[in-house]
Every structure is written in structure tokens, then in C-alpha cells.
Amino acid sequence: MGLEKYVLNGNPMCCAANVVSGEHYRISMLTTALVRLEYSENGEFEDRPTQMVVNRDFAPTEFKVSDVNGELHIYTKDLEIHYDKKEFTPGGLMIRVAGGKSNERVWHYGEAPRDLLGTARTLDEADGAIPLEHGILSKNGFSLIDDSKTMALKSDGTVEPRVGNKKDIYFFGYGHRYLECLKDFYYLCGETPLLPRYTFGNWWSRYHRYTETEYKELIERFEREEIPFSVAVVDMDWHLVDDVDPIYGSGWTGYTWNKKFFPNPKEFMGWLHEHHMKITLNVHPADGIRAYEDAYERVATKMGMDPEKKEPVLFDVTDPKFMEVYFEELHHPMEEEGVDFWWVDWQQGTVTKVPGLDPLWMLNHYHYLDNKWKGTRPLTFSRYAGPGSHRYPIGFSGDTVITWESLQFQPYFTANASNIGYGWWSHDIGGHMMGYRDDELTARWVQLGVFSPINRLHSTDNPFNGKEPWKYNKIVESVMKEFLKLRHALVPYLYTMNYCANKEGKPLVMPMYYLEPEREEAYQVPNNYYFGSELMVSPITEKIDTKTQLGKAKTWLPSGVWYDFFNGRKYEGGRMVQLFRGIEEIPVLAREGAIVPLKNMEVFDNDTDNPKSLEIKIFPGKTGSFTLWEDEGDSVEESWVETKLEKAQEEGKDCFIIHTPQGNTEVLPEKRCWKLDFVKMKKNTVSVLVDGKETAYKATVEKNGMCIEITEVPVNAEIKVVFENPVEESLADLAQEAYEILEKAQISYNLKSDLYNLIKEQQKGAIATLASMELEPAMFGALCEILTAEK
After folding, report:
1. Distance between CA atoms of 286 and 284, rounded to whole angstroms?
2. Residue in 20, 142, 135, 143 with CA at minimum distance from that of residue 83
3. Of 618 and 165, which is predicted with more confidence?
4. Which pTM was predicted?
5. Per the database record, which ranges form the Glycoside hydrolase family 31 TIM barrel domain (predicted)?
């Protein structure tokens, strides 16, 4: 019996024209910068997919080969390879990468890679930084992954170890062409799949013995307080735990609903679905299926065991028959009742009956591919299991300790995972366990979560450790609520980035050096990252200064012009800065000309469907465009509609155009309302045209720009906003910005007045005087930030 339905689609055979081989070696020139190096004592080579690699059929590559005195020389525009055609040794195999300093870009076999690192299996019990595994990007211009010891994937869906003395290494020599390297890695190892739309909302999770009544009351309170959630995570106590007879062992593993807590599971999950929430259950499968389980008799019988003997059905991920029964008798029935996906919480090591096979990888592989059986987009939620794990999103990063040190590590950890293609991490936002109560820490963690791939609030089983906003002081409660609403509003933007990750190989979160690899400063800000195509984030991960009431973040402003997402402040790029923010905000900057689509949250709901009302934030810049991608949101059958949002000029006038949607418009509402926020734009006279005809609109001038609202427009119409006068950007009011900083500062009133009057009178020229006043560093830095933000 096999598991054919769990076979990965791929093309593992390399194009013959790309292969240079001998009796014991094979070199596959997959691209001009990506090389597969194989050595085999018995002369047999691996053409099947492996746990890491699924596609080797790259297009024919241009290269030259020569054989001089028994040594092989291969040249491409990016690499030169010198090999003595013997078993790999440091002296016999060398690769030089074009560009850079010659001593930096040379690799000899056996040398450890000096790359920018990737990610790690888990943050379990982490209290701050942990070591990371290798990635594929390097300042030195090359890296490598050793695929020698991974399993081969057989055509029946099972795996087997490779035998004999074999080497199987992939060398990435892309220099600083990081995005090109990553794109080829995604082809080699499989694309990042599309996530369901609902995953981009807020997730509620807590290790707590909820009853059905308590859980419903919690969701209803969230709704009353207008705090949106789209995913309900129910931790292990959904199943029998303490009610298990000790003769059967612990209740850590379980598949039987605890009817004391959830008397009608199907009705409970149906209720959650009615409230626009998907549901995932935690499962620890290691202890198998014991005789007390409701499904035990069915499982034992199908496994050829006598149910009367009550012997446990042992967990064995290497047994195809067991895995078939595992899904069909344990998981599918509960999925039919309402479970949308599973939280696979494997913590029991790396040993299976197949030497070298990691059970975590196998569980991720099977669970993900199985989850599409109902026709919905497959999804699983589990720990990272090595290169290639990006094919099985979403990643659960584990149980962190609640400290500032843990928070300080997570932005870097998240962004750096893109260096091994792993783009969809979900952290325990707020931290999981131990540590200490610090309301400010929780607020900052939630802010990070909102600008992370997945925002899942979570905590351990402790009555004092919950992430409900009302558990915190009023300021932090307000901040948490506002940011959770913002996350829900960001779903249209995030879902478009989901499309880009799948189709273009661009992770949502990317380190700063991806786009400016030659700027050393871009490597010096590990917590600073791009968040999709339009935004850049620099989370605050340290406590506020008590005098200024501001936290700060070291930030690299890339070349160009940038605008604060929240208040519109303009920054000239190409420099390193410290950005200061109160507890209410973190530094989120939009590039010049950025267009960010949001769901209009004036009317509360938990719904993540394609919204009937959109709010578009349009930042200053002569040009700018954004293509909004939408579809049904949770189907394996893709049917997309694209809506281009664009700045333009027509007949000498500035315009903003919402083009007619192209594609499957049936997935969109019949009519849409549009709220267009033109950030920092001075008041202007406008006309609004719908399919060329003038229509009514509402225009308001606000502190941060001009807003135009258009209601109930047929979704297949073109909307054009025409500005009668040239669009002009409002100037910064330095005195007012200084006042807003000084107002909350915990310093003497006389000093506040002196500083305010100085800036009011001297504007940017006040910097020299400020430098002579021996101010606290945070106060001096915050005032300098606004005075030097733009030229």
C-alpha cells in the first residue's frame, strides 16, 4: 500500500545538455550560478526528488567545458569550476564566483559556508537569541546546501534513504543578486504555496482549559469590543487529558473531544464559522491511538489488530497503512465536522524506523498535502524541519520566554528566515511562558505581530498570562485594540503579497540588504525589514525612555523618499537614523508613491472576504501604481481578478485611476465604496468620474492630507479622480511636531517652553543650539529626528 496522493508534483530530471559527468561524478549546471555537485562510489546518481529538491529541469545553461591534463574546467558568466574528477577533496574541487575580492569568492570543497544564515527549527524555551542554521545568501557571494543525507521521495508517496558513499551538494554562486538566487531556490525546491485569505487576520490562541460556553463568551466579548479575529486556535484541552486512565499513559496525545468541555463539537465549530472564524486544533500525535479513544475500534480493526485486546496502535509515520488510517479515521471525520486545519505540535525528537528520517518533516509533508482533500487550499501549522519546509506553511516558532530579549530577537529571526525561503512564520505574540508581566512589552510585541507574516496572540496555561487587551492598563489596551484592527484592515494588502510570494518568489518580510546589497548599512539593522512592496518596518524592541516617553529603533532609510505610515512625516533616504515613537506607534514607512489598500474598518466585522468598502492610502510622489490581487480566497482552483490602482497624468492634469478589474470579477461584491486618503496632499479641487461620467463624492481636508469618499460604485467600473490644480505636498510644521513630543515629555515646563520657542523661531537652524544644551540623549535625538527628516 502506498501514499500516491501525497506525491509532490515536480520535474526532478535535469536537462541532459546541462550535465557534465564521468564514472563517479556528475556536475549539473542548473543555471550559470547554481550547480549540483555529485560524487558516487558505485556510479549511481539520484534522479528522484528529495525532501529538499523537487525540480531540476532548468532551461539549458550556457557554459564552456575543457579537460586539461585530467582536470575538468567549467566556465559560466558567474562561475569557474576546477575539478580533478576524483573523490571530492579541498584540493581537488574549487569554485570561484565572479566579482568581489578574489579571496572572498573562492570556495574549496569541505569549507563551511560563510553565509547570512537562515532560520531554526524552533524558539522553544528561547530567552533571546539562538543559533541559526545556514541559508543560501552570503555577502561573500556564495553559499551551499548539502542534500546528501535527505531522503529520496518514491513514486508511491513514501521515502527511502540513499545508500552508499554519495555526495550531493548544491552550490549557489549568485554574488549579491539575492532575489535572483531566492527565485531559483524556489524553483529548485518548490514554490511557496498560496495561503488561504483568512490566515492574514488575527488569530486567537491560548493554552487554557476553555469550555464551549467560555470560548463563545470570549468571542462575543471580542465582538462587543470590536476586536477582530479570523482564526480560533484551540489548544490541547479540546481532547481528553486528565480523564484518561493512567493505564493508557498520559493524555498528551488525544483524538476524542472532551464532552465535559465541548458537549457538541460540531455545533461549536459551526458557531465559530458563523462568526467568520476558522478553527484549528492542537494535536500531539506521538503516543498513537489508545483504547479509550472513540475511534480506537475503527483504527485497530483497519490496522489488522484485535480491538478486544485494547493494545495501543503505535504511531509510525513510516508505515503507509498507518498514515492512511491516521488521516481517514482520525482527522477526516473531524474535518467534516468543522476543523479547518491542524496545529501539529511535534516535540518528540527526530528518530523514526527509517534511519535519518525526521518525523516532523514527514508529518508536515503528509498533513499539508492531505489537507486539500475537501477542495480548500491546504494548510498546516507546525515547526520548521529544514530546507524545503517553505512548501508546508505555516511555521509555528515555538514557546518563547516572555522577556524583552525574546522580543528583540524576533524581528531579525523572522526576516532572516527569508534567506532560506521560509516566509510564513507565526510566533507566540506576546511571548509564551515564564518571564514577567510588562504591559509595554506586550504592546510592542503586538505591534510587531501586526507587521509580521502571521499575527497569533498566544500564552501558556497560567491564569495571569492572557493576551486579552482588557487585561492590561488602559493605554496598552487601547494600543492593542487599534493595532489588531489595523491588522484586519491590512488583509487586502497582505493577500496581494501572498500572491507575489507565490508567483514572484518574493517573501512578505525581507531583510534590508535584499534591495541594497552593496550598502554596508543595510546589513547593520537586523530588526529593520521590508514588509511587502510598499512598506518598511523598524519595530521598537526596547523600553521607552522615561523622560521623553519615546522608544527608539535604529533604522536604515533606503535611497529615495519615505513617509511615515501613521502621520505622513517625510524622510529623505540614504542614511542611518534613530526613529523615536511613543507607545501608540512604531516606525512604519511607505516608499515615495506607495499605494496601500486597506479594508475600511468603519463598520466592524470578523469577515476577511473581499471587502465591500476599501480604503486606499496614497502617498506623495509623481508616479506610483499597485495591482490589487483577489480571488475566492480558499480554493485549490485559482481564479484571480486584478485591479490596478495608478497615479497618472491626463491632459496635463494629475489623476488617480482605479482601473476596471480584469479577470474573475464574480469573486468581488457587486458594488464597492472607496475611501481615498491622499497623504500630505494640500487641498485641491477635484472631479470624480465613473466610466467617464462625473459622480458625487465627499471630500474632506484632514491633518495628514485630503480624503475623497465615493460610495456604491459598480465593481466593474473605472474610477478616475482628476485634480484641477497641480498636486502639492503640504509642508512639515516643525514647531507643531516638536510640541507633540514636548507635550508628553516628563521634564520641567520651563525647559519645554525654551525648546519649543527655539524650534519655532529657528526651525532647522535650532540643531546647533540644541547640541549645546546638554539635553538627555533621547530628547536631543527625538528633536533632531523631526528637524533632519527632510532636506
Report:
1. 6
2. 20
3. 618
4. 0.96
5. 192-497
